[in-house]
Write a structure and sequence with these properties.
Elements (H helix, E strand, L loop, with lengths): L3 E3 L19 E3 L7 E3 L12 E3 L7 E3 L9 E3 L19 E3 L7 E3 L8 E3 L7 E3 L9 E3 L21 E3 L19 E3 L10 H6 L5 E3 L19 E3 L8 H6 L9 E3 L18 H17 L1
Parallel strand pairs: 1-2, 2-4, 3-5, 4-6, 6-7, 7-9, 8-10, 9-11, 11-12, 12-13, 13-14, 14-15, 15-16
Length: 294
Amino acid sequence: HLRDLFSDNNRISDMAPLFKMKGLINISLQNNNINTLNVEYLNNEIYYWESLNLNNNNIKVVNGIEYLKCLKYFNCAYNNIKEIKLIYSHPSLKTLILSDNYITDFDGRSFENLENLNLDKNYITKISNIYRLSNLKILHLRNQKNGDINLIEFDHLISLKEIYVSGNNINSLDVFSNNINLEVFSANTCHISEMPPAFINNLTNLKILDLRYNGITTISCLKKIRHLKALLLSGNKLKDFYNMIKSLEHNNTIEYLDLRYFFLKNYIIIVYNNMNHIVLNFVVYILNNIVNYL
């Protein structure tokens, strides 16, 4: 009746003995020496495994996880995987973590039910059959090594609520303009120089916007985002303080504002008694920054 098995930090190289324990639910074998996950021969077997953690092994080949029909969580980060393909759609997998591998093209064909996908630190240049990921809510694509995510058709991710793409070279934010359900957008250190109107006009549901350490000079268009709670713009090249304030003076939702380390030049700050609370918050942050430049 064993349900949970945790055997991390050992020298396990073969998973075959586990296939005799069909009733297991949660399995963790991270930090071992497993090099292959092949469950294709389990086609007609019923396994109740719901969570499988194989983080930090030596896995190069993954075959047949679709036969683990109850699997909801699969972590195979920090391995040597170049591709992962299923013969048919996985019926229950919700979370797939494949960060720190060698994947260049992720094929979404067999992951229609996936809600959370982590592909950080791979070599991604393409997501094939991306339209099949229609239920995806969270996508991590940070720090692709020699990868280029600019040609990925993100607009097919119609249910996407959170995306993390920091550490990539992004030509334009327009590529995300049709992801109208986004609530969290994180793209720091991406060489972004502007926020195009289409990006702001369409992404009105944003709650967290992280664009730290880019080359943005103005945020005057942010007034259309009415639900914004956190705005992170430290390390940019903001120049127009007055319009920056005006763009958010009617926003009553912001709870966190980060404007550190940006270029200040020839500003005259006038505080009116009837200013909105967000303006006063701006002034506090700006004054703190001015002190650093004196």
